[in-house]
Amino acid sequence: MNARIDFFANPVAGKVLRHINSAGRAAGDVLSHTTQELVKIRASQINGCGFCTDMHTKDAAAAGETQLRLNLVATWREATVFTEAERAALELAEQGTRIADAAGGVTDEAWANAAKHYNEDELAALISLIAIINAYNRINVINQQPAGDYQPGQFG
User: Fold this and answer.
1) Using CA atoms, how far apart are residues 49 and 53, in angstroms rounded to an integer?
2) Residue 75: DSSP 8-state
3) Phi and psi of 5, rounded to 5°?
4) Each residue of 57-92: pLDDT tens digit?
5) Distance between terminal CA atoms of the chain?
6) Are 70 and 102 in contact (CB under 8 A)?
């Protein structure tokens, strides 16, 4: 499978990616690396973005995440390996990613649960991170960006 365009070499795409990356760094300064990667993985799984799923599972593993937890991200509700805070972030990520599937968007219950574990700055970062990974997922899915060749830390 080949990408439809070489998004990483295209000057317009490069400009867009620089801005998205800048926003990602601002959100990333507030949340733990573990939480960020779990949220990115879960949104990417939901969106069917192989490129981002590949990238974020490899980056998480390189940062010390266990294979067990990585294997269970898609089934986090039934898994006992995630903290209550991580579970709240994963729920927010799922509901924030599936906005089109639910007329009400993110439920008050999911929001209240996240607010029990994260302060206002962390919640702002979570909202931003969810929006950013969804943007990346859409770019890569539309472009049919191939997955599997990513090397941990390749872009950063």
Assistant:
1) 6
2) G
3) -135, 160
4) 999 999 999 999 999 999 999 999 999 999 999 999
5) 25
6) no
